Amino acid sequence: MAVERKAVDLAPLKSAKLPVIFVLGGPGCGKGTQCAKIVEKYGYTHLSSGDLLRDEVASGSERGKQLNAIMEKGDLVPLEVVLDLLAEAMLKKVNDSKGFLIDGYPREQAQGVRFEESIMPCSKVLYFDVPDEVMVERLLNRAKTSGRVDDNEETIKKRLATFHKHSEPVIHYYKDKCAQIPALGTPDDIFVEVTKFLG
Ligand code: AP5
Ligand code: MG
């Protein structure tokens, strides 16, 4: 897919010296749920790459249509698209943010490398570890109300395969700053472990 890119001045982000936390884990592991709790307690700015992409789709742009087709297949969208959306969203908030929670990114090692080179270094990584069958159950349950084009049995299988192939290796890449949290309990139980790591 050809990608249009705007020239954006990233200097305010580079000089901001704010904490950046990458929040990783398979589809339906609870990234969004835990991020909402982290925002409440720590006041960080939550940016979900999936939500930013869905906003772009909702805008009705040609690019949005192409993105929707990729997300419907459970594949990864091109790196530059997500990186640009994140950078733009971070720039909007940088002056009154305590730090950034980046949910669902990086989904492949190259995304992490490019983010840290062009935006700012990541301070910590949270990884929510949940068996596939539990993630499927959670997503099929959410499918009843989510309206998401990728919350169906076939796409969920593909999202899981994409996660294991491309995203799981990212956790090993960041092992020195990553907390691997088993995320089978209640959201509150899991959040206790999150706060132990975030301090
Ligand atoms: P994205 O929107 O990030 O989807 P995802 O990773 O598949 O994860 P979800 O948002 O579905 O789940 P979640 O982990 O946030 O869990 P939630 O808290 O909602 O990405 C969508 C697509 O966009 C990708 O497939 C890809 O195509 C594209 N994309 C996104 N980022 C990209 C990137 N960086 N590069 C390239 N492409 C990218 O919880 C799920 C459900 O479980 C909810 O109903 C919730 O209430 C429930 N639940 C949560 N916690 C618990 C618990 N502890 N116990 C019981 N139920 C729970
Ligand atoms: Mg999410």
Q: Give Rg in angstroms.
A: 16 Å
Total E-strand runs: 5
Category by helix and strand content = alpha/beta
Shape: globular
Give the biggest sheet: 5 strands, parallel
Give me the side-by-side strand order of the main sheet. Answer: 2-3-1-4-5
What share of residues are in beta strands? 5-15%
Distance between the termini: 42 Å
Arithmetic mean pLDDT? 96
Assembly of the depicted chains: single chain
Which ligands, by name, code or SMILES, are bound? Answer: BIS(adenosine)-5'-pentaphosphate, magnesium ion
Structure description:
By secondary structure, the protein is an alpha/beta fold. It contains 9 helices and 5 strands; from the N terminus they run H-E-H-E-H-H-H-E-H-E-H-H-E-H. It has helices at residues 11-14, 31-42, 49-58, 62-72, 79-93, 109-118, 132-146, 153-173, 187-198; strands at 20-25, 45-48, 100-103, 124-129, 178-182. It is globular. The structure holds BIS(adenosine)-5'-pentaphosphate (AP5) and magnesium ion. BIS(adenosine)-5'-pentaphosphate binds at residues 25, 27-33, 48-50, 53, 70-71, 74-77, 82, 104-105, 107, 111, 138, 141-142, 150, 159, 183, 186-187, 190.
